[in-house]
């Protein structure tokens, strides 16, 4: 920019803005009603007076990208018609949101008669009405089935709550008390953000505030362009298939295609050739498609660069209308999450062809159990239990077990104690499954299992990723283990149908065992140091048999130690099978 800036002041402002969003997050998490809010399935951020995302936010990369789309729609609809005390409400996937259970609160911040900033907070609600409890089944065929769609409406007008609108919403959701509690928590977060932004305006003045926001965006643009320039010019393509049409139809292969075109300091992600939109609700709205691209590109940019409007300027995204990743209204999109994970992985793998020494395997997880019904005392409940496998192998490090995929950021796994206190079920098991992480010089994350026993009858929905195609390794790494659902309703284990969203009715005493897919490994597993394989055996992440089979490392059981002579012989034999010791 033409103006000069005090770099120390800008850095201080950047961290003050981050502190404001953290204050917003604290307000939301401490006052939210649902377990999903308590574990962090929400986000908060600040935009400038033009609705441009500034960047430091309590949010994952994909959430920040969605906020940019939402704010463009907010500005387009309301322009200069907002007034002090107004609060907007939106969950419309055709107005920037990801799907209808995700509900955002947007509040303008006025200073001396002008809008100088906006606060925005969103969270996933455990119900939004519609045909299926939870509002995000893949088995809807139109958006009208998925729940109550809110197209950027005023919940508050000049400080007065729209009671008619609120009554309408609460009459259409299965858990009205919880829904209202989470909505009010987000409002509290936005009000907290307004208090702190006003203090910053009083402290620094309007000109310094706006100039610093401009600088943070321009800096993000410069650094993103520099990161793209480091990629050799060319076209980097990757193809894959999505395994479900939303109804579990056998033999489905819906083509996914991306071509990353790099020219100088600009990158274009072109999804031409991707399959047409599906009849089921697996389609990915355009805002989520953009979010997956931005989140993947963020991995190659310096960590101090904020994901804001400036970050997106060098990135162009081309998506055909009416395809899986840009469906036309009124296509259903509620069950879009498994496709979003596949798309994120797709972009990562295309990027890895350009930068094989820098780009990791994206990671696995985002599986969910939704349980809805009536408690023994007659009150309704809706529970969402989300959990994750972890990151795939990286070019220089192992993946990380049991954390959210890289695009998700701030989420956590719901504590069993919280679930058992709030809802009629028992978590009977939660842990890792050995030998499920993709073998490699750098191992991928292990599968995580969760087992529940239901104490009351109700309806469940299980969301599963990786139905039949595992997370493949890179640079010679091996694939991770597949996901799995095991039903133990009558003391006999049975494998459930492989489907992204599976609906069942449960009785008291029924059990479900779910296994999240493992992540692929990076690099030749037979070049992994035997000491590291041994450490995984000690930690029960790899079995003795798995160490021999996948890594060529022979470990004696008693006492537990590396058998260096047999390991050397096995590896020297060029991976020829060696009989196990008696």
Description:
This protein is of the alpha+beta class and 582 residues long. The protein is built from 13 helices and 21 strands. A hairpin with a 6-residue loop joins strand 16 and strand 17 (494-495). 54% of the residues are buried.
What class do helices, strands and sheet pairing give? alpha+beta
The first-to-last residue Cα distance is 73 Å
Helix content estimate: 25-40%
Q: How large a portion of the residues is in β-strands, by DSSP E?
A: 15-25%
- Strand arrangement within the widest β-sheet reads 1-4-3-2-5-6
Give a short account of the largest sheet: 6 strands, antiparallel
The total count of strands amounts to 21
- Spatial extent as radius of gyration: 25 Å
Arithmetic mean of pLDDT:
93
Uncertain runs: 577-582
Structural domain count: 3
Helix count equals: 13
- Give the overall form: globular
